[in-house]
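Recall that a protein's primary structure is simply its ordered list of amino acids. Everything else, from secondary elements to tertiary packing, is in principle encoded there. The following example makes that idea concrete.
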Amino acid sequence: MTIMAELYGKLAHVPYERKDVSNYMASIDTAARKNNDMSKLLAQFEEVKVHDPEFFKKIDLDHDDRVRRIFWVDGPARAAYKKYNDCLSFDATYMTNCYSMPFAPFIGINRYGQSIQLGCGFLRNEQIEDYVWLFEAFLEAMDGVQPINIITDQDASMRSAILSVFPDCCHRNCRWHIMQNAQGVLGNDMAKNEPLRLEFNATIDYSMTVEEFETRWAEMILKHNVADNTHLQDIYDMRASFVPAYFKDRFFPFLQTTARSEGFNAVLKRYVTPHHSLSHFFEQYMKLQEKIDVAEDSNEFKEEDKIFRFWGEWPLEEHAFHVYTMPIYLRFRAELRKVTSYNATHVAGQIFDVVPVAGSVFGYGKRTYRVEANSEEGIYICECSKINRDGLLCCHALRVMTQLGAVNEIPAHYILPRWTVPPDDIIPEKVELPPMPTDRKLSNKERKLLRYGTLCNNWTDYAKIAAESEKATALAEKYMRELGKELAAMKISAAAKRKDKKQPSKNDGVTPETEIGGDGGQGSSTQYEHVRDPILTTTKGRPEEKRKKSGLHLKASKPQKCRGCGSAQHSTSECPSKITPAPEQKEFDFFRDMV
């Protein structure tokens, strides 16, 4: 609007408001997508499938060939489901597209405790047959593997469809939704009776077994004389679908509600609005999936600039730091800190009571927990069952371990693989180094190959570390560029030195005075003026005139004449007019003729 105000002179002269601009843009989008949204969406599916062969889609049409139900899931999500099918959160939400079709995502939890999307669907209606179709499409995409545990909101159609399609799955309802619904009808009664409210919450949250819940609920009803309260009776009737005591041995890590689904929907609404088409939604979905992948890849490096310090001095904490991913380690450390909130009392045999030091402990209330410990076999069983519910040891078991002196390592059978640091998916290829000879020195070629192989192996290790995050990769590339510049400068400098060595200077070489006199060039050149050139050295072997000749050389083709005087009696080298033999040469010729 600021730009429009400048165009019209001032803001008061602008003939429309911001909402008018928004409505006009929405009308343009509606006109643009009219009659071609589905064709564009299907074209996007085919384009994605070219780069992602594992991409899965399924569409259901009505009698007018209009889309009634649709489901898709990308290849990486299908691969992730094979590792994280132990717990799903499922919920349906509106306000995501111009058709008012409820969006139904399947949300899982990865090894970092992050929410990941494992497929999504759109339904025209929320009847049982719609959810059955969606769950069957999900099951088809995941090669028939049912989820082990699933949590949804309090929807009867969902429950019926889950019982039909996922019969082996443990289905749990969201505690928050049920309590919110109860708030509307029980809020007035609870506000007038604070002791009832506190006991009601404690009975639901901190009953460790079904038997304990039943006992405490009956005592609460009798104590506060609320047996005629029909709303409390309705909550009691649905107890098996949401009360934690009924699911204490099932894997629902760090959740009792569908908050992960709702949180994911909230993030998704930053990318799309109710006015957008499904093709636009799919574009934003792919961007969001990419963001999730990047967040997972960089999770271990998000605090790399910080100096990390352990909370205590226990070897147990250091072991957890090296075993678990960073977010899971932080959760374990929070549990470890709660150890200081309890005292452990030996009851009998291998039984210990873990009692709060003072007041209430967050997440566990004021109650005492019983732990059965067998330190020899590394077995610690707490009635809170956190190890089954979250896959981590609870503070009560850790407190007993501390008292028994078992503080060095977490027992291997209590380390859930899905929470551990992922195995290396990059296997560096090592260069094979040349063998080291023992009977001789390495040649220049062997030394060069040895240096090359050692550098390649070292840099491969660095590359593996740098590839873990974008920040580490940028750092490695920065130093590689600087190293490249220094090596290039070194190469240029070495080439210049070799060039200088090849160009002789005025004083290069050894003077006759230096070589003969041996006095470093201090001798005089006049004292060697009588020195003459050496004579031709006679080689060993048969004299030339006695050498046997082949048939080609027995007779010359024509007589040879001296080029100096023209005589045929001698050659040019023996011409008397050209050579005057020295006395010592005559003596040599005499002895030669005698041979």
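The longest strand covers residues 115-123. The chain has a mean pLDDT of 80.
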